[in-house]
């Protein structure tokens, strides 16, 4: 599962997994993507994974910089 995190809900994207969909474990490297670094600008949130035609997974997320 990918999730938005931080005190405002937009500070980054975290990852967690579960074998039974009841008990979840957060990855030790969370957040996987953190706002303010590189292309992640001021906000980084609402992650979605989409399977591409070649079978690879693409990560889409919302982001915001200082102007838009």
Could you characterize the architecture of this molecule?
The protein is an all-beta fold and 68 residues long. 0% of the residues lie in helices and 46% in strands. The chain is built from no helices and six strands. Strands 1, 2, 3 and 4 form a four-stranded antiparallel sheet that branches. A hairpin with a 5-residue loop joins strand 5 and strand 6 (57-64). The radius of gyration is 13 Å and the shape is globular. The mean pLDDT is 80.
List the helices and strands and how they pair.
Layout: E1 2-5, E2 12-17, E3 25-26, E4 33-34, E5 43-51, E6 57-64
Structural class: mainly beta
Largest sheet: 4 strands, antiparallel
Number of helices: 0
Q: Taking all residues together, what is the mean pLDDT?
A: 80
Question: What fraction, in percent, of the residue positions are helical?
Answer: under 10%
> Distance between the terminal alpha carbons, to the nearest Å?
28 Å
Give the overall shape, derived from the CA principal axes.
globular
> Rg from C-alpha positions?
13 Å
Give the DSSP E fraction (strand runs of 2 or more residues): over 45%
H/E order of the elements?
A: EEEEEE
What is the number of strand segments?
6
- Low-pLDDT runs of 5+ residues are none
């Amino acid at each position: 599962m990918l999730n938005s995190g931080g005190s405002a809900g937009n500070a980054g994207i975290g990852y967690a997994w579960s074998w039974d969909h009841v008990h979840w474990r957060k990855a030790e490297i969370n957040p996987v993507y953190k706002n303010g670094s590189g292309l992640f600008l001021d906000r980084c949130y609402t992650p979605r994974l989409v399977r591409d035609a070649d079978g690879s997974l693409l990560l889409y997320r919302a982001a915001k910089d200082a102007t838009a």
